[in-house]
C-alpha cells in the first residue's frame, strides 16, 4: 500500500510530460503561423463522397417504374440502364449530352493513405516470409562445420549488414532488376528480404549457440541424426529465446519498407507525399502516416507478446 502513492505520482508525471509534448507541438506550429486543417485528412483514409455517373452519349432520359433510369441514345447505341442510385440529377424526358451527370451513388471508397497502408502490409508480409527462410538457412550455415557454407554465410551477413538498405534497394532495382527483368514490387521485396535475412541469421545463430551443447549430445545419443536433433530439440528452444529480438527485427522491417518509395512503389510513405502535395497540410498528413505505422507495429508487438505468454505457459 505504501507504493501506491508513488505509482500514482509517477503516472501523473508521465501524463504531464505527454501534455507538455502536445503543447510544445501546438506552440511550435503557432510560432510559424501554421493553420491546422485536420478536416482534410479523413477523405484520404476513407472517402465517403458520392460517385457521379455521367452519360456516355447524347440522348434522352426516361424514369421507369421501380425508380429505374433509362438513357436512350440518339445514335442507336444500347441504352444505359441504371437501377441503383441515391440521388437523381435529371428529370423524366430531359435531353442529356455526353458527359452530363445523371445520378449520384453514395459509397465508401478506400483513400490513397489506406491503399498505401495495404501496400506496406503486402511488402512487409511477403518480405518477412522470405527473410525468415533466408535467415534460417544463413544462420544454420553460419555455425556449420563446412567451411564453404560458413564462409559464404559470413560474407553474406557482413556484406549486407555493412551497406545501407537504401543503396541495396537501388542495386536490386536498377542493376539486378534490369538484368532479371524484375518489377518494382519484386525488386523491393527482394531487397527487404535479403537485408532483413542477414539480421535474422545472426539472431538464429545466437539463439542456437545459447542452447547447451549437452542438448545436442543427448539428442544424438538417443539415435537422432543432426537434422532431427536440430529440428526436434535445438530449434524449438532457440525459437523461444530469440522471439523478442526477432519481434524487434520484424517491426524494423515494417519501418524499413518505407524506403522502397524511392523506386516509386506507392507504399504508405509515398502515398503520404502525394497527399501532402494535394492538400498542402504536411503536419497533419505526416502525423496521420506516423499513427498508421504505429498501429501496424503496435499490433505486431501485441501479437508477439501474446505468443511469448503462451509459450512461457507451455513450459
UniProtKB/TrEMBL annotation:
Lipid bilayer topology: Multi-pass membrane protein
Organism: Marinomonas rhizomae
GO process annotations (BP): amino acid transport
Major location category of this protein: membrane
GO cellular component: ATP-binding cassette (ABC) transporter complex
Keywords: Amino-acid transport, Cell membrane, Membrane, Transmembrane, Transmembrane helix, Transport
GO molecular function, one term: transmembrane transporter activity
Family membership noted in the UniProt record: Belongs to the binding-protein-dependent transport system permease family. HisMQ subfamily.
Subcellular location: Cell inner membrane; Cell membrane
Entry-linked InterPro entries: AA_ABC_transptr_permease_3TM, ArtM/GltK/GlnP/TcyL/YhdX-like, MetI-like, MetI-like_sf
Protein name (record): Putative glutamine transport system permease protein GlnP
One Pfam family cited in the UniProt record for this chain: BPD_transp_1
ABC transmembrane type-1 domain mapped to chain residues: 117-304
PROSITE patterns in the cross-refs: ABC_TM1
Transmembrane segments: 7-28, 115-138, 159-179, 185-201, 222-239, 285-304
Residue ranges the record marks as coiled coil: none
Cited function: Part of the binding-protein-dependent transport system for glutamine; probably responsible for the translocation of the substrate across the membrane.
Organism domain of life: Bacteria
Classification via SUPFAM superfamilies: MetI-like
Amino acid at each position: 500500500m505504501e507504493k501506491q502513492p508513488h505509482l500514482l505520482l509517477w503516472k501523473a508525471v508521465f501524463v504531464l510530460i505527454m501534455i507538455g509534448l502536445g503543447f510544445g507541438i501546438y506552440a511550435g506550429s503557432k510560432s510559424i503561423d501554421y493553420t491546422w486543417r485536420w478536416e482534410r485528412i479523413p477523405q484520404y483514409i476513407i472517402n465517403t463522397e458520392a460517385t457521379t455517373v455521367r452519360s456516355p452519349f447524347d440522348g434522352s432520359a426516361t424514369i421507369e417504374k421501380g425508380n429505374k433510369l433509362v438513357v436512350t441514345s440518339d445514335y442507336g447505341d444500347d441504352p444505359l440502364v441504371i437501377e441503383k442510385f441515391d440521388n437523381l440529377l435529371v428529370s423524366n424526358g430531359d435531353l442529356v449530352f455526353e458527359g452530363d451527370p445523371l445520378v449520384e451513388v453514395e459509397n465508401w471508397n478506400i483513400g490513397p493513405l489506406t491503399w498505401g497502408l495495404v501496400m506496406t502490409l503486402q511488402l512487409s508480409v511477403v518480405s518477412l516470409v522470405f527473410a525468415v527462410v533466408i535467415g534460417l538457412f544463413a544462420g544454420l550455415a553460419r555455425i556449420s562445420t563446412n567451411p564453404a557454407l560458413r564462409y559464404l554465410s559470413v560474407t553474406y551477413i557482413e556484406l549486407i549488414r555493412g551497406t545501407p538498405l537504401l543503396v541495396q534497394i537501388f542495386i536490386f532495382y536498377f542493376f539486378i532488376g534490369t538484368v532479371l527483368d524484375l518489377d518494382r514490387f519484386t525488386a523491393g521485396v527482394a531487397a527487404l528480404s535479403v537485408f532483413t535475412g542477414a539480421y535474422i541469421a545472426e539472431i538464429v545463430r545466437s539463439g542456437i549457440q545459447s542452447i547447451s551443447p549437452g542438448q545436442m549430445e543427448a539428442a544424438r545419443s538417443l539415435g537422432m541424426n543432426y537434422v532431427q536433433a536440430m529440428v526436434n530439440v535445438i530449434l524449438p528452444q532457440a525459437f523461444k529465446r530469440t522471439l523478442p529480438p526477432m519481434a524487434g527485427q520484424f517491426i524494423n522491417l515494417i519501418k524499413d519498407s518505407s524506403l522502397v518509395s524511392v523506386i516509386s512503389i506507392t507504399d504508405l510513405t509515398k502515398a503520404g507525399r502525394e497527399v501532402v502535395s494535394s492538400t498542402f497540410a504536411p503536419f497533419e498528413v505526416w502525423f496521420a502516416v506516423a499513427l498508421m505505422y504505429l498501429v501496424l507495429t503496435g499490433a505486431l508487438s501485441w501479437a508477439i507478446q501474446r505468443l511469448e505468454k503462451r509459450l512461457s505457459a507451455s513450459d
